[in-house]
Every structure is written in structure tokens, then in C-alpha cells.
Design goal:
globular, Class-III_PLP-dep_AT, aminotransferase, 2 domains, PyrdxlP-dep_Trfase, alpha/beta, Aminotrans_3_PPA_site, transferase
Length: 461
Amino acid sequence: MSFSIAELFNQHFSEKFELHEQHLNNQMVRVLRTIGYDRNYKRALGQYLYDENGNEYLDLLSGFGVFAMGRNHPTIVSALQETLTMELPNLVQMDVSLLSGLLAKEILATCPDNLEKMFFCNSGTEAVEAAIKFARYTTKRSRILHCEHSYHGLTMGSLSLTGEHIFREGFGPLLPDTGSVPFNDLEALENALSGKDVAAFIVEPIQGKGVNVPDDNYLPEVERLCKKYGTLFVADEIQTGIGRTGKFWAIEHWGVKPDMILMAKALSGGFVPVGGVAMTSKIMDTVFNRMDRAVVHGSTFSKNNMAMAAGLASLHVVHSEKLVENSAKIGNEIIAAVNAMVPKYEFLKEARGKGSMIAIEFHAPKSLGLKAAWAMLEAANKGLFCQMILIPLFKEHRVLAQVAGHGMNVVKFLPPLILTEKDRDWIVGSVEKTIADTHNVTGSIWTLGKNLAGHALKNKK
């Protein structure tokens, strides 16, 4: 009897939500059904998703950024199919991999010239875990510093460096000897580093939660202060890297040279889990300093041929299709277009970000009627106004996006880097229509708002 994934998919297509309710995280199914995101997607191509009725959706979530090249890119698909048919030796373990060597060479060519070595793993959180260990061993210090409201992952070490408390609650005690400072606060950073006991300062060049962009002097001063106090400067580019912000690495906007760059997400085009750490030779040679230490840190599936092939193909697509340049052009045009709306709409505070990492922030209006409506939502659940934007964007305009973090009135766009001018106009038009609708407190969108507030208050009891 033959085995067919296509047959299984078609046979059980309508059972997706029931299977998750029975065997997986049923709370996720409840969320999707409550906000009306419970669609049965049947196909995906590029920046678009297609449901069972053939409706096209513009994906501004891109799997939390992993589909930077779009879904099912033919070049990456072809590379993976070719790799599967080559009968290559894979994960021999008592050997070294050709494809991982080639991918390391390609990645390091994009990095600052002080980074000469690569370590591969399976995910962003594994890259953070590796950085913690490498920093401690290299500096012979134990303290790891991060920023408030940061997000670095959900395994125990990376969770200890994640500043969003909702992710940490109930999972302690976490990794000892960690601490946080406010993002974009150089005085607080220097105070924390001045004791000369900090192994590494791990920072997102642009914070993912909230899309917080630093002052122009922040990261150059971070580099200077870390050098002054003997602390390793680690740039977490897991979300911001590989073209996301309109530069290959976000650190290029500020011309800095960290001691490590952490990467994952877009590195394999979304096909195969992969992560990595680019680092100085000093760090690599300190950690792996003798033959008997050749295996002191690693991961069974790291450097597997499928992940490495996907990474090589993804980098080829980024360069050959000029996706970094497209990310900068289309993304910055979206930011500018939304900012041009600010004078017209009281709820709209600003759009910000760089390239295709975009935040739209809302705030309390000045006029009495709108202020009362805003206060009703905030009293029910801080940040609830964003759902009044996101749900109509999805249901009425078929644009899929997300909130930028818990308890904040910020909508976040993290689209594939392949957006066209037509997609740009689709986004801008949909955003403006939705924001305009929120300014009519007698309209149907505020019926949605009242229902959301009712659900939020019920869940608090």
C-alpha cells in the first residue's frame, strides 16, 4: 500500500481545527475562532494565501518572518528536491559537511569583517543559548545583560533574557545571573557594565515587540561601552536580519561591528529549521580550544543537508532578486504613506520601522466621543483597539497581520520581502479605510469593539 501526503491532506482537510482541539493546543483554536481567523487555507504562493474557496489573502505575518522570500519559492523548492535525490551522506557526525562549509562562507561574506566563524543550530532560541555559553566561556564571566521588553526565545536560557513578562510567568526560577536595562538608555547600560562582570549584552537592533527603533547614537555607543568594559556585544538579528529592515543586517544602519550576530527565521526561506551564530575567531577558538573540546557544544540535526541547501538557495534568491533593496523601497513607502494619514485621523499616532519591519501605533484621541470609546476598550483590556484594526483588515480586506506585543496599541507588519507596488497600494488602502471606519463611533466597527470588550471583561472574571 502506497503512502501519500497529498491523499492524507485531501482526506482530512476539513478536520484541521478538530484535530488541534483534541490533540494539540486547543486554546489556539479558541483564539482563532473568537477573532474570526479560522480559515481553511489550501494553497500558498509568494506573499499570498488561498482558502478553500479560492479567496486570496495578503500575508503580512509571513510565519513570524520566516517566509521572507515568500512561500514555496521555486528556487528553494528545486534546491531541496535536488538535495533529496542526490543520495548525499547526511549527518555522518564523524565527518564535516560540505554544504555547511559553503553556507558559512556565504553568510560570513555578508557580515562585518571582524566575524570570521560560524556555528549552526536549529532555531533562533538555540542561537541565543549558544551565545550565552560562548560568552561565558570566552570572558570567564557569568552575567548576561538584555533589554526590557526584549524577545530572545522561549527555552530556559533565552527565556531568561526575554523581557516580556507574559512569557516568563510561572516558568521560574530562570537562569541566574541575568539582568535587564531599558532599551535605548546608554546611562543605564554603562551603569550595568561598569562592574566589569557582564559576559555579554544581547540586544535586538530594532526590538521586535513594539518595533522600537533606537536613537542613531545608541548602537555605536553600545559597541564602545562593551569594548570599554570587556563585555561581548551580541546582536540578535533573528528577526531583523537577512534583508528585513532594508539592509542585509540591521546593524548596517548604524555601522557597528558586534562580536556575535544571531540569525534564524528567514535563513532557510521557511522550509527547514535552521539557526546560526556568526562570531569572531577569538570566540570560536576559545570555546573549541582543544581536540577533546571539539564537541563541547552542538546539536544533532544542525548542519543537516536539507537546512544547509535551503540556506544556500535562500541567500541566492535574496541577492539575485534584490530583495534587500525591494524591502527598503516598498517598506519605506508604506511607512511614509501611513504617516501621511496622521493629520486626518485622531486615533493614529505614527508609523515607524525600517524596511519591511513596520509598526503602526494608535493612541487616545482628543475629541470627546472618540475619547470615551477608546477609554471603554482600554478599561476592558489594554491594547484592545488593535483588534478593531486587525479583524476588519482580515475579514473585509483579506490582509493578515498581528499585534506588536501584549498590552500595546501597536499593529505590526512583517511581510515577505517580495511585495509589489500593487501589494503596497492594497495595504495602504486597506489600512486607511479601516482607520477611517474607527472614527465613526456609530458604525459597525464599534459593534465589534463592544463585543471584544465584553469578551475581555468576561475572561477577566
